Amino acid sequence: MTINKKYFLILLILITLISCSLNESETEGYLSGQKEIFYLNSDQSSSLTAILAKSTTIDLPTSKLNKSESEINHTLSETFGIYEIDDNSTDVNYSIDLGSENKNVYFIYTNKDTISTLPTSTSNAKQTFKQESLTNIKTLSNNFQAKHFESNFTRPKLTKSTKMFKNNNELVDNNQFKLNIWVDENAYGAECNDGKCITEEIIEFFSNVFLKDGNNNDIYDYVTNIYGEEWGTHSYIDLIEDTNTIDILLFDIDNDGTPSQTGGVLGYYFSKDNFTRDAVSGSNEKIMFYIDSYLLANSSNSDGVDDGVWEESDFFPQVMVSTLAHEFQHMIHFYQKNVARGITTRTDTWINEMMSEMTEDLVAFNINNPGPRNILGDGSAGNSDNIDGRIPVFNKFSQDSLTVWGNSYIDYSTVYSFGSFLLRNYGGASLLHTMMQNNLTDEQIVTASLGNSKTLEQLIQDWQTSVVLSKHTNAPSGYIYNTGDWINSTYNGVTYKLGSINFFNYNPTLNLNQTHTTQIHSSTIVQVANDKNGTFETNITKDANTMIKVVVEPVIEDNI
Q: Which InterPro entries match (predicted)?
């Protein structure tokens, strides 16, 4: 391979900047303006021009609605009814015989592509990304200093041959793996003046949850067991060698300590650090990610009440632990997809983020964390009026496009919801392994990993159907969110537990009388009949690109 080819990574691989936000405006502002990037080098001051993910809007194409009519009839013969109206007709006369027992009927409208005409019913009952410069890079010797804390042990590291396609837990070499924690001096000790300071107690807790002695007892073990190693051998001269070390820098990413801040970036992984400094001037030449120190040290509970005493069980420390798993997937993703396999296209952002959200969900029980569903240590769907986690935001904005990434908290909630459906219906940990260990980077990562012929649009309809039925613990196979208990997923000898989800247990609850949307790969849920038996009839006027799923459920006393 020539030198020019070896340098192709700089030009063709997205240097990923991942940020998880508690506030939509903060996230949007992060991508729209310049950002300070810190690197751990005392004699480097050059600026960095990088490829930065930046979302763009889509223009809705206009098309004429060529009206065609059809008549579709169904008869309910089971407890639940799930029927597809994947019909190119634009005028559908629809009827269903519900039988003698009272039922609820929902229409789920899903856009195959951007549509030009919104559907109605009357009843008698790939993103592009632009280059952007990152300036104002600070060095540790230029108004930014960090204290270095090494983990208190070293441990054997598995080799690439076993970590990428791992068949057992045999230790095959004598290399020692090490975790380094770096803390901004402004966030630690006497130099910290904002009241949310990193302590040795916090450092010990945070390092141990990521990496501690023993097997299958930390984030590193649980995540690499599924995906493979975060870094290893390669043939590129512009990438750093493997040092069997991960570095984590704790600093106030978005000046969260200032009174005007109402949210912040939890953390990010930036693959610039995987490059040599000769190739990328701002590189730390470390396998590392960045975590917000202010939020990690925050002792507030989920209601925003701060007792001033930091505990591991506080709201923000738990969120930051989950963030470690999230960012670790991004780190592994870069190596496994783009370096180890030499793929020269980046994975679609919505898929990469979805896999990180799925990772948080999958390891939550193992690391004693509430995870994205915000339920700690309980396999049931929990209690009503749950206001935290990803699902309340999804419920409020459930018509958000799955595949159009705007880097807001809404997008994270949308991809989590879809990913949580995939995990519970298509194999859990083994599905994630398959999604990582292939050469795909677009929606085929999902569709080709499921073992069936369903399109993404069909999967979106199945997902939304499962959301509607999530209040039931006996939903049909393939539409399961809620069994009333844990859903076990064992991969490579390690068992992961996925908790049940009832979308109607969250506040706000799901809107079942939605206004239709024209966004690509989005769905609209409308309850068209409530507590009805006998024959239900309606006329549907729709765009030819709109798919409709009819969902019928039995009426239950606590139905919302």
A: Peptidase_M30_hyicolysin
